[in-house]
Design goal:
With about 280 residues, the protein is mainly beta. The chain is built from 2 helices and 16 strands. It folds into 2 domains: about 50 residues, no CATH class; about 220 residues, Sandwich (Jelly Rolls), CATH 2.60.120.
């Protein structure tokens, strides 16, 4: 920018300004800080095209919905099936089920319980809708993130052996303006009986709420991740186009179907970056 008035130029010293990018398919913005202008007449500010969405969870030190680490020993049981909108912790438009955040890293937990039948209480994380995409535009996007995984399995009866299973990761898109818990096939034994009567069947390890899916039941490492250890990364480029009404979702299930066990499976995630590739 060029200024005719020196005082006006100096007044920008140390200030944050918002820069908006209006491209063919999206409108995005970023905030940049102007350096000290008190003794210079020319300065340069480095700009880069901002992500369609970026989240590193660094603004949240510690959070839990109370269901991301339920007990697995003795008679412990946690049949929670709710979902939380996370604007209260500074993440407007984000939703989570069995979610925790610590040290700038998020995790979701899949809870598995089996006494009379298998019950899968899945962990979920949904981004806000991708509203920076322009109206009536459909684009292909690239999604990258760092991740890790872990588990805690316990036998409920002395005759039961630990199942040695793993978490299953699903990733895809959801177009609900307000995300609700959509997997009617999960739950405890009574939920499953009610589901059978209603025609939805017994509890299923496969989620039904993501379409299209871009990760469909990926087996995660059994013990290779923690809040302070995310050893892996992934980059997904969508084959199908998405629009501004879509949100990205990660759902964690498990391949466990072992009698007499309770278990937690965790998926840790950070540095979520979304860009348009089209």
């Amino acid at each position: 920018m060029r200024f005719e008035d020196e005082a006006q130029y100096r007044a920008f010293s140390g200030k944050d300004i918002k820069v908006t990018y209006d491209s063919e398919h999206a409108i995005t913005s970023q905030t940049v800080r102007i350096p000290d202008l008190s003794s210079v007449n020319v300065t340069m500010v480095t700009l880069q095209v901002p992500y369609l969405l970026y989240q590193d969870f660094n603004s949240i030190s510690t959070y839990s919905d109370g269901h991301d680490n339920p007990g697995v020993g003795g008679t412990a049981s946690d049949t929670y099936k709710g979902i939380t909108e996370l604007s209260g912790i500074g993440l407007p438009g984000w939703y989570g089920t069995r979610i925790g955040i610590q040290g700038g890293v998020a995790r979701i937990c899949c809870r598995f319980e089996n006494i009379a039948a298998s019950a899968y209480y899945k962990g979920r994380l949904y981004t806000p809708q991708l509203t920076n995409i322009k109206e009536d535009e459909d684009v292909k996007i690239k999604v990258s993130f760092k991740y890790g995984s872990n588990r805690n399995e316990k036998r409920k009866f002395m005759s039961s052996s630990k199942p040695d299973k793993t978490g299953l990761l699903y990733m895809g898109f959801n177009s609900q303006s307000e995300v609700v818990n959509p997997d009617i096939s999960e739950g405890d034994f009574m939920d499953q009986v009610a589901g059978l009567v209603a025609g939805s069947g017994y509890a299923s390890m496969t989620p039904s709420s993501l379409s299209p899916k871009v990760i469909n039941g990926q087996e995660l490492d059994k013990e290779n991740g923690a809040y302070n250890y995310l050893p892996k990364s992934n980059t997904i480029i969508t084959e199908s186009s998405v629009d501004r009404n879509m949100r990205i979702g990660w759902i964690l299930s498990t391949n466990n179907d072992s009698f007499g066990t309770h278990a937690n499976y965790w998926f840790y995630i950070d540095e979520i970056k979304v860009q348009i590739t089209k």
